[in-house]
Amino acid sequence: MGNLINNFFSLATYIDSSGKSSFAQDWTVFYWAYWMVWCVATPFFIGSISRGRTIKEVILGGYIFGLSGTFISFIVLGNYGIALNVFGQLDLVKIYNESQNLYFTIGEIISTLPLPFIAMILLILTMITFYATTFDSITLVAAAYSYKSLDNKEPSKKIKLYWSILLILLPIGLIFSDNSMSNLQTVSIIAAFPIGIIMILLIISFFKDADMYLSGN
Questions:
Q1: Pairwise CA distance, residues 151 & 128, whole Å
Q2: Which among 75, 134, 141, 202 is most buried, taking Cβ atoms within 10 Å?
Q3: Contact 188, 33 (CB under 8 A)
Q4: 89-145: pLDDT as tens digits
Q5: What is the DSSP string of 72-132?
Q6: Does 1 have pLDDT greater than 70?
């Protein structure tokens, strides 16, 4: 945890300018692009379900608790996998080199847990819940974007169904792709550039709206 805090900014902004490896392009740049794409829809969804709550409650519920859960899962499961490899209980490097499949390697880690079958079921249920709520939120935001004016009403179910079908085509395509992770990385990086411009406009719009609100009060 201490190493993460000390090296967070250097690792988060590392782009390997000398070009010794492709790690920075494959992962550091990818994650920046990935979360830039998410930033367009996620804040609007959090805002739509936070009506009537204070800013403190929104920050705690939407960011602090969510980040804490993510950090805990990475710290516990990540260190568990490292410990298996370091203490010789499971040669993860060999497994990955032989299979060249990250997901198979993760499955091998899960198989070492007590009651691995139940652990796998819990993981699958968690993933289904995550994707169901994620697509529901993105569908709601995309459907709301389809209206010029919505007046705080729910979008039409037909519009939401249209966006649900449209948004699910990409993950289905990635499932049948030979290299889904590489394709996801490419799509995220391509989409991040125009979305970066949109984010700048959103920031400017936020300050304008905040100024108008404060001026009116």
A1: 32
A2: 141
A3: yes
A4: 889 989 988 887 888 888 899 999 889 899 899 988 988 888 887 788 778 877 887
A5: HHHHHHHHHHHHHHHTTS--HHHHHHHH--HHHHHHHHHTTSSSHHHHHHHHHHHHHHHHH
A6: no
- From 41, 40, 26, 17, select the one nearest 189 (Cα to Cα): 26
Asked whether the beta carbons of 168 and 135 are under 8 A apart, the reply is: yes
**Rounded distance between C-alpha atoms, residue 151 and residue 60, angstroms:** 27
Burial 35-51 (b: 16+ CB within 10 A, else e): ebbebbbbbbbbeeeee
Residue 157's identity, in one-letter code, is: K
Give, to the nearest 10 degrees, the angle between helix 92-99 and helix 102-110.
Answer: 140
Amino acid at 122: L
Higher pLDDT, 168 or 95: 95
Q: What is the pLDDT of residue 84?
A: 92
The per-residue pLDDT for range 141-157, each reduced to its tens digit, is: 778 878 877 776 778 88
